[in-house]
Amino acid sequence: MISKERPFPIKIQKLQVLLLRISENHPKTKFIKENLSKSLAGYNGEKSIDYYLSLLPTKSFYILHDLRLLINGRYFQIDTLLLTSSFALILEVKNIAGSIEFDSIFNQIIQKKNGLEIALPDPIIQTGRQESQFRLWLHEHHFLPIPIRTLIVISNPQTIIRSNDKNVSQQVIHAALLPQKISQLNDKYQKPILLDKDIRRMIKQIKKLDTPLNPSVLNQYHISREDIINGVVCEICGYLPIDRVHGYWYCPTCKSKSKSAHLKTLEHYDLLFGNEITGRQLKDFIMISSPSLATRILNSVCVESRGKGKGKVHTLPFKEK
Ligand SMILES: [Zn+2]
């Protein structure tokens, strides 16, 4: 049973909007594009294991995706957590192309791709850390200790995995082997430790304390407000900025008319600047001059606000998760 779905990452949404709203010639564009394609590869890798997870019996396995929990003042992240009454399994999904060799002497993996070699951090160390952090987390929240196992799942079936260390093959697998590995663990850990109500309480607590990372992309990439292109985007052809004509949004490129095109644009505002907006900021961003239209839009979209007059701050209703 899936107890927490994998969301489409907020980080990817933010990078996509940022690329749409800075000039193609901006000095950061290339770097942002590279980061976006890395993030997309990671997300697609994680999604590709869903098929194998769907083969598990739904009654005895609880699956939680994309978690970020706090322990001792620091956050740790888990791609996928499987819970049963007798053990927990942490899955770390890696979408790495080419061939990878585990070097347990220098604790690195060496990726070979297109004739190039690069070193990447050893995911076995990473999962070892996640295991101890999750153990501490369970202890701190008064759950019974259960065996915690970890697996590194290589999501690209074409990736060649090499190692001369036998332990590596116990911990690193291709995605297709996942059902078999989980079934072996299930046979090994047969003694139930948690009751159904314990698992339910654990899932509730995890979901309550899960804190997705939500950094400001403008700060992260040192991009100033002036670099962001204003205007309402056409929902049909993507043209920016479209015009306000007789109560409609009108696209001069594809000639389409829309009453609600500003909503998507306000989502962009939220992803770039956060969920608080004043009338002035709205007018600048959607490029309108009428204060009464700005007020009308804000009152129709936002339910919460604080302050008065020109300094009134409205809260955009878009969910951050
Ligand atoms: Zn258009």
Question: Could you describe the 3D structure shown?
Answer:
The chain has 321 residues and is of the alpha/beta class. The chain folds into 2 domains: 2-209, no CATH class; 230-315, Orthogonal Bundle (Arc Repressor Mutant, subunit A), CATH 1.10.10. Helices cover 37% and strands 24% of the residues. It has 11 helices and 16 strands. It has helices at residues 10-20, 29-48, 50-53, 123-140, 166-171, 178-188, 196-209, 217-220, 261-273, 279-286, 291-301; strands at residues 2-4, 62-71, 74-83, 88-94, 99-103, 108-113, 116-121, 148-154, 160-162, 172-174, 243-245, 248-250, 257-258, 276-278, 304-306, 313-315. The strands form 4 sheets. Strands 1-2-3-4-8-10 form a 6-stranded mixed beta sheet. Strands 7-6-5-9 form a 4-stranded mixed beta sheet. A 3-stranded antiparallel beta sheet has the order 11-12-13, with no helix packed on it. Strand 11 and strand 12 (248-250) form a beta hairpin. The chain is globular and about 70 Å long. It starts with a strand and ends in a 6-residue tail after the last strand. Bound molecules: zinc ion.
β-strand percent reads 15-25%
Number of strands: 16
Heteromolecules bound? zinc ion
Q: What is the chains' assembly state?
A: single chain
Structural class: alpha/beta
Q: Could you give a short account of the major beta sheet?
A: 6 strands, mixed
Rg = 24 Å
Order of strands across the widest beta sheet? 1-2-3-4-8-10
Total helical elements: 11
List low-pLDDT spans. none
User: Would you list the SSEs in sequence order as H and E?
Assistant: EHHHEEEEEEHEEHEHHHEEEHEHHEE
Helical content class: 25-40%
